[in-house]
Sequence to fold (410 residues):
Amino acid sequence: MRWSTEPRADRARNNPAASNLVGADPAARRLLAAYALRQRAYRRAGAVLVLLAALTVQVAPRSGSVFEVRLGVGGSFWTNVVALVFAGSLAGAIVAELHHLRRRRTGVHTAELATRHFDDYASRRLHLGLWVGVLCVGVIAVLAAAWPALVGGSTDLGSESEGVWPLWLPVVASLLVAGAVELTARRVIGRPRPALRPAMRSADEQVRRMAVNSSLLTRGVALVLLALTWAVIRIPSEDAAVTVAANTVAGLVFVAAVLLVVRSGRRDAGVLEVPTS
Amino acid sequence: MMLRVDHDSAIPVYEQLRDQMLRLAVGGWLQPGQRLPTIRQLSSDLTLAKGTVERAYEQLERDGVILRRGAAGSFVVERLPSRSLDEANEALHREAQRFVTSARQLAMSDDDILAALHRVMLAHPEPPAAPPQ
Fold:
């Protein structure tokens, strides 16, 4: 397979995938391609900035010791990186979606009388997954806290001074992520839309769907799943079987989170990259 | 169907909104029982204050054109009051009077006026299908 040497924006404009989405209208395809490119740039910038910020925090001595970031399965280096990249990418997507030019209250403005509902744009599966994920994190956190009383195992859940995050943190983190995703998605759907010709309306619908599903809900669900792995591995047990089971579940959930984002990224890439035979 | 408001017009924006929605309802473009956009959506799309859209909706409810059912939203009534058609015709007549008065002040002939009207009609062609009654 050989990749085109034409500029990326042109490739996006000529992309058959984009054409399928919004028809052959060049202006509509330009709108979709410009949106996808801008979103990707913000998500990448967010990921890089969050990684750099975490690196700065990690190397800066705090009270004489090195502050350690522990996220994801076992708090290993790569799971930390994945979690930080996902978080930064979601932050970048939110910034990109919230930023829009303020329209002035002068001149003529148009609108359509068609109603816009959250369910018309958001994937029900992803939306449900987001909040079920948050619920699961809460249940697992309660279970982890109650585990010693249930099975008489270890009560050592660690403490922040020992470099281990407190148990409530995954719950708060997942709630914050889900809340931010929900609010931003609703704002995207409520974003002003003037009366448009059919091709542009179709492109606008597609942009809103991509924003809500690919950019926000997918990354939100992935982060909540990472918080779930974080909570699962905190179930304290002296029983090796329980530890293995918890780590296996956490590993599977982690892989599911990564696959979710990778698959969504591939779908987006279909709009941007045009291979030439 | 499209709504269009002119922020620079001497006619208050809520009046523009109310008149247009009344005409759309009388003309059959808004179906009986059809759900209308929320105040938040319409104010966002038209760059208006929520209070302006709220006022237009209030007046339409008072005129018997729409029903507001709290959180469920606003809906076009099943049967429009007969005075709505008269009112829509009156509003159209007022607009026509205003247009002809302006044209006469500009010393335009009948042909010029009709040509100007024709140009605007060409820019806003008749929709391909008549609205269902």
